[in-house]
Specification:
Helices cover 69% and strands 0% of the residues. The protein is built from 8 helices and no strands. Helix 1 crosses helix 2 and helix 4 packs across helix 6. It is globular, with a radius of gyration of 17 Å.
Amino acid sequence: MSEPESTHQITRLLQEAGQGNQDASNQLIEIVYGELHRLAARCMGGERPGHILQTTALVNEAYMRLFGSQAPLQVNDRRHFIAVAATQMRHILVDDARSRQGPKRAGIKVSLDDVCLVSPERPQDLVVLDDALKELEEVDPDAAKVIELRFFGGYTDQETSEIMGQSYAKVRRDWEFARAWLYDRLAQT
């Protein structure tokens, strides 16, 4: 199947799945499972071997959140779907980190470099980063999405540009702005 044909088929299946068609949801997951698994592996890159949440479990949990709710999934195309899936995976990892986090500790200092990989020993780092990312989203939603796709999804600038449907130059500007903003914000924690 050619790339445009595959993209068209995925868009059609997404629309049908959004209307509640379970067969379309099942076909869709078969087509995009490999990409979702790679995304999950990127998100899980820093987890210790044997961690309770494995890549397959992360994909399955994301799938359930995307297609298991009462409200049908509303996405425009493959790029939008991957972005939404990356967001769901981030939320799953943050929820897991929050559940493993002890009581809040005041004065936790976290740098962006410290949390480049999800650390099971320091779930508070991921939680602090998630809180900062939520603040960034209020300031600049595009920059926050770039960080999410690059940082949590492990996508390159070019892949992020394609997923977001934005120019490479804009993605680079958003990446640089977001990194500087997050470094500054995390230095204040």
